[in-house]
Amino acid sequence: MRAAFGGIRRGWTTFWFRPEPTSTIAVVRIVFGFVATLWTLSQAVNLLTFYGPDGVFPVVPVPGVGAWTLLSISTSAPVVIGLWVVTLFGAVGVMIGFRTRLATVLLLVGVLSFERRNPMILNAGDVLLRNLAFYFIFAPAGAALSVDRWRRARDRFWEFPLRAPWALRLMQIQLSVIYLSTVWGKLQGDLWRNGTAVSYALRVADILRFPTPSFLTESVVLVEIMTFGTLGLELALAIFVWNRTLRPWILALGVLLHLSIDFSIMVGFFTLLMLTTYLTFLPPESACRLVRSARQRLGRWKARRRPPVAPPPESPSGVPAANSRPDPHRRPHRVRRPSKRVHTGRR
């Protein structure tokens, strides 16, 4: 019994706290920061319409117990615009890794304030953005591939220090929770249990990118395959993503699932953020290889853009002209001096 508990304890410690290279969390941070920047920029078009005092939701909703938003203080245009600018700075700071922890806090506060100011325009992608920002506060996100790393150890910028991955594990668990809760919620309704839910979803014209062909929405067999197939794949993603052998295949199917949803239905940033969460399962050694490959490609690209060095012009005697720069790779011309004879006084 003691040996069994010892094995469980070692497994628990290894899963949460055994130090790993920070290559994975660095890659996830860059991608997440980029998506968060796009999300913030997308709010600029309807910023005052969605969150201003004269917009579609002029009255600030009463927050629940423990809920808060900075826009409950004021919803004037300068305050809304100022909060948006701070959120944008936070998103860019997360992406480049500048004052990473502070930037993550600014991003979380901004996203949370906007979402609770007008909860009527939210979807699952906005909630996932908020959750991931919360996890990044506790993650060593700026330990590698960041401006913070450049400032601390410029000569070791491309190294990945070891850190405990417990915050990354929370993001991985979040992915499983999303799929498990999704399957559970869908099974509470009749449409998913009788196999017709996808047909209804593909006929809501307001959220479709283009009209769905009728043979997809009216075929009983195809509709049931898509409906029950979606449920089965989401359940498999929640469970088998923890199996190292099946993980690449199940995640590949998940990528196809989300891309097909985003191709047909406007789901905001949900697809991009789900695929960002997939990156949390990228092994550290694979992330290291990915970064090295990107670094080599960047070096080759810079080498191709560097202008070629022209050889210096030469005079007819073969000596470089006076107004030309010396070639550092050219061997200097050696001039032999006449040797001096030493007189010893003997004949």
UniProtKB/TrEMBL annotation:
List all membrane-crossing ranges: 26-45, 127-145, 220-242, 249-275
Q: Where is the composition biased (Low complexity)?
A: 316-325
HTTM-like domain: residues covered? 17-286
Positions of region (Disordered): 301-347
Coiled-coil segments on the chain, per record = none
Q: Name one Pfam family in it.
A: HTTM
UniProt keyword Translocase present: no
Membrane protein topology class: Multi-pass membrane protein
* Location within or outside the cell: Endomembrane system
Q: Which UniProt keywords apply?
A: Membrane, Transmembrane, Transmembrane helix
Signal sequence region: none
UniProt superkingdom: Bacteria
Point to the regions of Basic residues compositional bias. Answer: 328-347
Its recorded name reads: HTTM-like domain-containing protein
